[in-house]
Amino acid sequence: MSNVYASAHPLVAHKLSRLRDKNTEPKKFREFVREIAALLAYEATADLATTPRELETPLEKMTGAELKDKVGLVPILRAGLGMVEGVWGLMPSAEVWHIGLYRDEHTLRPVEYYNKLPTEPTVSLCLILDPMLATGGSATATADVLKKWGVKKIKFVGLIAAPEGIKAMQTAHPDIDIHIGAIDSHLNERAYIVPGLGDAGDRQFGTG
User: Fold this and answer.
1) Is there a catalytic annotation at residue 199?
2) Which of 69, 144, 177, 202 is catalytic?
3) pLDDT tens figures, 100-136
4) How far apart are the first and last CA of the chain?
5) How many angstroms separate the CA atoms of 18 and 10, rounded?
6) What radius of gyration, in Å, describes the C-alpha atoms of the chain?
7) How far apart are the C-alpha atoms of 110 and 63, rounded to whole Å?
8) DSSP secondary-structure letter at 198?
9) How far does CA 170 lie from the centroid of its chain?
10) pLDDT given for residue 106 in this prediction
11) Residue 103 catalytic?
């Protein structure tokens, strides 16, 4: 699992525990999603390229750094939307592109229903944002779309993953790094991550 990075940060573990609690109400749930997303994005972007930037402090001139890579955020609708604000807090200039997928309850396969990507890529790195990497169907399908779009560098950022989802991503896209808050035990018969946290979309938006 050389391309899988499960966070060892105590803040991530603490906030994930609060997130998993069935008694956590939607408002607090959304706050934890944003906060954990920011922490994971911080780790996922540790290798971003920078370029020198000349500036002057109140004391003297110096050479600082400026991000060279242009970053795009691709939240998988709808659950991935809650992660955007957290990442935007770190990179307010990041572009956000939406790809809509839903899981067919019979086949458990993703079905694309929304895609407004421009004709040509406008970013050098895309972060796929989705709280749950369960079967891996939505994540692999999104990566397929982004590669066809022409993006050369892609990373997946999620809160919780199942071994099945990780395996699916590694099989379909071994070049994509996976940054995750925690790796759980398995998927149940309904393809929910166990112990997981339930349906991330429903818990964020107060539905279901």
Assistant:
1) yes
2) 202
3) 877 677 776 777 787 878 888 889 899 999 999 999 9
4) 34
5) 13
6) 17
7) 47
8) S
9) 16
10) 76
11) yes
pLDDT (0 to 100) of residue 114: 79
Q: Which residue among 69, 103, 144, 177 is the active-site one?
A: 103
Q: Which residues pair with 56 in a beta bridge?
A: 61
Residue 1 binned pLDDT confidence (cut-offs 50, 70, 90): low
Helix, strand, coil percentages in the chain from 3-state DSSP, rounded to 5: 30, 30, 35
DSSP state string for 20-42: H-TT--HHHHHHHHHHHHHHHHH
The domains of the chain are located at 4-205
Active-site residue (options: 107, 130, 142, 177)? 107
Quickly name the fold that domain 4-205 has. Rossmann fold (3.40.50)
pTM over 0.85: yes
Cα separation, 154 vs 157, whole angstroms: 10
The amino acid that residue 101 corresponds to is: L
Read off the pLDDT of residues 49-74 as tens digits, 9 standing for 90 and up: 999 999 999 999 999 999 998 999 99
78 versus 1: which is more confidently predicted?
A: 78
